[in-house]
Request: fold
Amino acid sequence: MGHSYLLLGPEKGLKEDFIKELRSKIGQCEVSKFYSFEDYEAELFAQLNNNDLFADHKLVILDEAQEIKTVDKVKPLVEYIQNPSDCATLVMISTELYINSSIMGAVEAQGKDYVKKFYEMFESRKNEWLSSYFRRNGLSIDNRAIAAIIEKVENNIQDFENTCSQMVVYLRTIPGKTSVTYDDVEDFLVHTREEDEFSLFTYIAFGKLESALDCLHVLLRTKDSASVTSMCASRLSTYFRRALSVQTNVQKGMGIGLRRDEDSSAFSTKVFAGDRPITMPRDREIYRQCCMRYNLRDIERILVTLAEYDVKIKETAVVLQGIMMERCIVDVICNKGRHSKPLDMPRL
Reply:
């Protein structure tokens, strides 16, 4: 008989390991994934309840389960968990440690092994894990290098392992290299980081003007400049709209805490249609910094300014669009959306 599993908590890597192990136990199966902030119900239940001619079993994954709150979504899911299909296994995933009590109760009724909680590593455990990983690969690592990895890499085993395995390969190209230093970590992360529009938003969120301009120049060098400038302003608007949602929730008294014992409801409560929850710890830190730097009025003004620049960039000659985008970044970071000078730009 099929069962339903509930994987809770922020530790992404161990959840992935659990799902891999579950797939190996099931054997050949068809895998489908859905997100709870989408209109998933019809297709999800069709997958769960219909036999497949080409696979003996189905593994159906429902992510962001903390967003399932309304009765019309909770009730049919609980009814399925209580009367599951023989040909399917349902896995629900949440970054939170608790979700709707009816859903949790239905899963727990199957037995204690069907609800799993995966916690982030404690600081001492991260240090131990990183030291051990590099030691197994013939390298020592100093404390500053460990701190740099913890600060700059997403806080879960999966991302730690991916980054460290790539770093080991990189360091083995250096003759006689036996230890990992802070400079090694910085050099590796700088040279392997791929800049994109979200990187640009991150620098703006932290108020780092020089880094934001450097990021823009990298994008202009490595991609089609016309597409970069036309897309940058519009993509920044998307990220600032999400920041506006968070800041609006903060004004209502919701929290932007980052630790497990702190209120973080501002990241997951919808304000505008189409809002998606901010679940990754690193993303939450970025939006938190954005909301600490820019207040509600600032963000509203920035969104207007970005819309104005988006129009002007499209009207400006291609060779001058990069300059226009630089002015946009300066107006956002330094002036919090106020124009330092008229927006007019001469055309060629």
In short: The first helix runs from residue 12 to 26.
